[in-house]
Write a structure and sequence with these properties.
Blueprint lengths: L1 E2 L8 E2 L2 H6 L10 H21 L20 H29 L6 H6 L3 H13 L2 H16 L5 H4 L2 H12 L4 H14 L3 H9 L2 H8 L5 H14 L3 H9 L3 H6 L7 H17 L1 H10 L2 H10 L4 H14 L5 H7 L3 H4 L1
Antiparallel strand pairs: 1-2
Helix pairs in contact: 3-6, 5-6, 5-8, 6-9, 8-9, 9-12, 12-15, 13-15, 15-16, 15-18, 17-18
């Protein structure tokens, strides 16, 4: 059935099928009105969901007129990783190469190659920045060059070399490195230029501070180095200015060996002679007098006993006998 609604109007199909499933129908969605409504509802729902959704910053583009530079962290990490891998590979090759070299019996021509400025600089770099094994192998190579009389004072007085060895000696995590470093420093101190350079980098206070923690072998090396440095006036001054020189050295008397006792007495004697009044008072406070009496009572050689007697007399200059005995707590010892 059709209904005409006037001129220019449209005819509505009111057939049962049309009403049921057609334009006015409320069927399953095949009609135009139903489909459009459903689509509109879905779109509104999507918009609402997007409004509440947190959009990752990676999807937000920069404005075209924004000229600020964004950090490219991924690129930075790749570059850093690449250079790190190259550096580690180079360190590994250097470690392997130096390990091979120290085990070879090199002729004179081969040994002289290591004295080229570029080779010396490379060895210094490895001594300062390499692993503990690389540092020890560098020390062995330099020791070999010194023994073969190829390594001279000009090479040995390099500040980079001395600083690298001092770092090796101060690293208490590796006792074998401490022994190696002190052993090479002992050899290098035969050069006068090296002694001056070693004092200039402030090595004496560092060695004095290390004394209480060193092994017997290392103590022998360290005390020998300090004794050699006393031949220079700046060495005497540096030793006197170090607050722990007398206490740390006095503790070593009659503790390790006769040789260490002799070296310690030489160092104490030099310090007290350089500044008698100041050092004598420090020696008394450090209990040096009791240690010197032990040396006098022991079976040490006459030279050590004579040096101890002179040092004991020097310490007592500004005290009366009674005050000196009481100050040094020697009453029980003398009795």
């Amino acid at each position: 059935m059709k209904l005409d609604v006037g001129s220019g109007g449209q005819g509505l199909n009111l057939e049962p099928a049309a009403v049921k499933d057609g334009i006015l129908g409320g069927g399953a969605g095949n009609g135009l009105i139903s489909a459009a409504g459903a689509e509109k509802l879905e779109l509104e729902k999507m918009i609402e969901e997007l409004e509440f959704m947190e959009v990752p910053s990676v999807f937000i583009l920069q404005e075209l007129w924004d000229d600020t530079v964004s950090p490219k962290t991924t690129l930075q990490q790749l570059i850093l990783r690449g250079f790190s891998q190259r550096y580690l590979a180079m360190k590994k090759r250097s470690r392997e190469a130096i390990g091979f070299l120290v085990n070879l019996d090199l002729d004179l021509t081969s040994r002289e190659i290591f004295l080229q400025p570029a080779k010396i600089s490379l060895m210094m770099d490895m001594l300062n920045e390499g692993s503990i094994d690389t540092k020890i192998n560098c020390k062995r190579l330099i020791s070999m060059l010194i023994e073969r009389k190829v390594f001279n004072s000009e090479n040995g007085s390099s500040l980079s070399l001395l600083v690298g060895l001092l770092r090796l000696v101060k690293d208490k995590r590796h006792p074998n490195g401490v022994v190696a470093g002190l052993g090479l420093l002992k050899s290098l101190c035969s050069f006068e230029a090296v002694r001056n350079s070693f004092i200039s980098i402030g090595a004496i206070p560092h060695l004095v501070e290390l004394l209480p923690s060193l092994s017997n072998e290392c103590l022998d090396f360290a005390l020998y180095i300090l004794e050699v440095l006393l031949a220079i006036s700046d060495g005497n001054l540096a030793l006197k200015d170090c607050a722990n020189t007398i206490p740390n050295v006095a503790r070593l008397l009659m503790k390790v060996s006769d040789r260490c006792t002799q070296l310690a007495l030489t160092i104490l004697w030099a310090a007290c002679q350089f500044a008698p009044e100041e050092c004598a008072a420090l020696a008394v406070e450090a209990g040096l007098a009791a240690k010197l009496l032990l040396v006098l009572q022991s079976g040490c050689n006459p030279e050590l006993k004579q040096r101890s007697a002179h040092l004991l007399k020097l310490c007592s200059l500004n005290y009366t006998a009674t005050l000196f005995i009481s100050k040094c707590k020697l009453t029980r010892t003398i009795r």
